[in-house]
Write a structure and sequence with these properties.
Layout lengths: L1 H10 L15 H15 L1 H14 L9 H14 L1 H12 L4 H9 L1 H18 L8
Length: 132
């Protein structure tokens, strides 16, 4: 398993601009040291997953105003449990075993952080969801 851990950690982007002074057992530390790099690394996949979500829901997203598009994204991630689980799986699949054990003990709070971070990430990249 050590090979898997080394491989996962080696492919994650380094976020040197984030100075983490939090306690290593805290949720904020986990967010900055684990979740942020994974979200950045998986960003292209997340964009494609959301585009596929729009397609499966008859592309109604594309007929909405900007404000309603932002709300649509937020609602999709907060209310569609199956979609949330897919997104969580993409993230959790990138955890090392040690990170997974840490995640399990505070999964409810970390799941909320994950979804908030993804909502912000999607909304800040809204231009990627325009029809070419």
């Amino acid at each position: 398993m050590e090979t898997r851990t080394k491989s996962l950690l080696s492919i994650r982007p380094s976020l040197d601009h984030i100075k983490n002074t939090d306690d290593p057992a805290s949720e904020a530390y986990f967010q900055n040291e684990v979740l942020r790099p994974i979200l950045k690394f998986q960003n292209d996949l997340f964009v494609q997953v959301l585009k596929n979500y729009f397609f499966k829901h008859k592309n109604s997203f594309y007929s909405l105003s900007l404000e309603k598009r932002l709300l649509y994204i937020e609602n999709a991630l907060q209310k569609d449990i199956k979609f949330r689980n897919v997104l969580k799986g993409i993230i959790i699949g990138q955890f090392t075993l040690e990170e997974y054990h840490s995640y399990r003990s505070k999964s409810a709070a970390l799941n909320k952080r994950m979804m908030q971070m993804l909502i912000q990430r999607y909304q800040s990249q809204i231009q990627l969801f325009e029809i070419p």
